[in-house]
Design brief:
67% of the residues lie in helices and 0% in strands. It is mainly alpha-helical and 240 residues long. The termini are far apart. About 8% of the residues have low confidence.
């Protein structure tokens, strides 16, 4: 069935294998196993095959869209063959690190393929994971409480605040009684607008100070005074 779908969409087997960075024999094995109703040895490829080939009645347009999405997110730029369950043995520390990365990759892979995450949402998550995010650590601690990995009494104050607020938020959601006031909505709307468009909220006094500083810098530069940066700053302070 898979070969017929690829042929109908003018995709050669060798092209498909190359795009996903796997060998042709590996692809043949995956196709044979999938078409016979078995599961693939690689969980990520199982999800990719389900995404592309589970619906025999999928339109050509829908398949093209899904295929382009898979190649864009999981094509040659990512060597997916490295995520095979038969990866070589490594040291204990390397294995633990690989397992942690694999767990995150599997979840993100499924969410991206099934389009539960948009690319923008994924980008935000990636940035949070790459930086030292206090907010993210506090959120993690809350979920670790329910795994008995940490104790509530051992959390620091920011972690306790986050845990309690997340608990109350989840409780309200579960009870289907979570509401917000119009005032709270407007407050959030205003905060977002101030963040994205700060120039709209510059006070007259602030704008006057900005204009004076700009004027002082322009005057000093026009006079070609040869002052150092510290001297220029000192001169500007005297004018304010």
């Amino acid at each position: 069935m898979i070969k017929a779908v690829l042929k109908r969409n003018n995709i050669l087997l060798s092209e498909f294998a190359d795009s996903l960075s796997i060998s042709r024999p590996t692809l043949d094995t995956y196709i044979r196993n999938y078409d016979s109703g078995g599961r693939l040895s690689n969980n990520l490829f199982q999800k990719i095959f389900d995404f592309l080939f589970s619906d025999a009645q999928m339109s050509k347009e829908d398949f093209e869209r899904r295929y382009a999405y898979v190649i864009e997110n999981y094509g040659k730029k990512t060597d997916m063959s490295s995520y095979s369950q038969s990866a070589p043995q490594t040291s204990s520390s390397e294995t633990n690190g690989t397992n942690r990365a694999q767990a995150v990759f599997d979840v993100l892979g499924e969410d991206l393929i099934l389009e539960r995450f948009t690319q923008d949402e994924y980008n935000i998550l990636a940035k949070l994971l790459m930086k030292d995010s206090g907010l993210l650590h506090c959120i993690f601690k809350y979920f670790l409480l329910w795994k008995d990995k940490v104790q509530l009494a051992d959390l620091n104050e920011p972690e306790k605040v986050m845990a309690i607020n997340l608990f109350m938020f989840d409780k309200k959601l579960q009870g289907k009684d979570f509401t917000y006031s119009e005032e709270e909505y407007r407050e959030l709307e205003l905060a977002i607008d101030k963040k994205l468009n700060p120039s709209k909220y510059t006070t007259e006094q602030e704008q006057k100070a900005i204009d004076e500083i700009s004027g002082s810098i322009s005057t000093l530069l026009a006079n070609n005074s040869g002052l150092s940066i510290d001297e220029i700053i000192s001169q500007i302070r005297k004018t304010l």
